[in-house]
Amino acid sequence: AMEKSYVAMFLLLIVISCALAKDAGKKDTKDTTAKPKLPQTLSRGLFFSSQKPLMIIHHLEDCPHSQALKKVFAEHKEIQKLAEKFILLNLVYETTDKNLAPDGQYVPRVLFIDPSLTVRADITGRYSNRLYAYEPSDISLLYSNMQKALKLLKTEL
Fold it and tell me: With 0-12 CB in 10 A as exposed, 13-18 as middle and 19+ as buried, what is 20?
């Protein structure tokens, strides 16, 4: 059961890095070495025993936009149901990995990643200058994008 220990280790990394990010935010340090690079960790066999797409939500605790999106996300019954078909990662630190910031490091942003560890550039929000941004009013678009991610996954497997 190698995969299981990787998953545990990976989730632990996320928890640790979230804690680190909170402290780092106060001092505003430029030190990015403490933050794990995601795809490297993922490719060590995180999930592909489970054929679930990954949904990464980048947000920051003190960002009102992030909080607002989080609230509508949590209150949307259909989304909550659909979310069970995803591996959901809430990242509250900024990643140093360029793959996870294809068009910049704004928050909140939502990326869908398929089991081949590819960021789905074909699943985007409605803003051309921030492709993966969603406002609370875009919650139905986010919902249909989650459905799209699952459909794409089924056809490609």
Answer: middle
- For the stretch 77-117, pLDDT in tens is 999 999 999 988 888 876 777 888 888 888 899 999 887 77
Sorted by where each starts, the structural domains of the chain and their CATH numbers stand as: 38-150 (3.40.30.10)
pTM (2 d.p.): 0.67
